[in-house]
Specification:
Oligomer: single chain
CATH topology of the largest domain: Rossmann fold
Distance between the termini: 21 Å
Radius of gyration: 18 Å
Structural class: alpha/beta
Largest sheet: 4 strands, parallel
Number of helices: 14
Shape: globular
Helix content: 40-55%
CATH architecture of the largest domain: 3-Layer(aba) Sandwich
């Protein structure tokens, strides 16, 4: 099965190892992965901030870069969800609307693709740790993917997954929200960190690099001994090291 990786801005700039783990897991599961070089930002920051024309420009570039792909996979639920907005974003441009929908229909978040397309729930990972999982807002509420990460994590050998209280609450990142509403965002991420601490987990797992960056930043500032890992890093690990 041929897969095009949409790496996302945050993976490219801050979490390159996450992108590598995504590729390694997909290849191990039998996928042929390529990387269309024309890809840019999905346009979500501009779209969420009301800059519709800028978001349209980004959307058109992404559509042009990825429309010939068989499947599009990304390590970010929020970016995958943004692709689903392209058809509405370009609704007044008939030449683009259909192309936008075609791209959206073959775009998947990483765990969503493994579980729902590849039909695999056990990737052979082993990660002995006490962990909890943060559910990102865009992935659960806009992409409507709630089960795939848990189906994969329950089959990771040695992983004890502890439920996170108020897991549905936003971590406070929200793209530009964390910049525009910093005091409110700080209160939100502080509450998230308190709930993580209450689980006594030594690892927080997430499926969105934006949430990871925000929560890890706060954990580090508070000096808490909690690791923050993308789910791809967990799925690409065994006791003796990287698979």
């Amino acid at each position: 099965m041929k897969v095009s990786l949409f790496v996302t801005c945050l993976s490219e700039m801050f979490y390159q190892n996450v992108a590598k783990d995504v590729v390694e897991v997909l290849e191990r599961l039998g996928c042929e992965v390529d990387f269309p070089r024309g890809q840019v930002c999905c346009g979500q920051p501009a779209y969420n901030s009301g800059y519709r024309k800028d978001a349209q420009k980004a959307a058109k570039q992404m559509i042009s870069s990825l429309e010939n792909s068989e499947h599009i996979v990304t390590p970010s639920g929020s970016c995958a969800a943004m692709f689903k907005e392209y058809s509405e974003l370009l609704k007044d441009e008939p030449a683009w609307k259909g192309r936008a929908q075609a791209v959206a229909d073959k775009t998947y978040e990483f765990t969503q693709f493994i579980v729902n397309v590849l039909k695999i729930e056990d990737v052979g990972a082993e990660y002995p740790a006490r962990a909890t999982y943060h559910t990102s807002c865009h992935m659960t509420r806009l992409l409507n993917e709630k089960e795939a990460p848990f189906k994969l994590l329950k089959n990771v050998k040695g992983l004890e997954l502890i439920p996170l209280e108020n897991s549905y609450d936003c971590c406070g990142f929200g793209g530009t929200f964390a910049v525009k509403m910093a005091p409110i965002s700080e209160q939100m991420v502080d509450e998230k960190v308190r709930h993580i601490e209450d689980t006594a987990a030594n690892v927080l797992i997430a499926a969105d690099n934006g949430c990871m960056m925000n929560i890890k930043g706060r954990i580090d500032r508070k000096g808490k001994p909690i690791e923050v890992k993308h789910i791809a890093q967990i799925l690409n690990t065994r006791v003796e090291g990287r698979i």
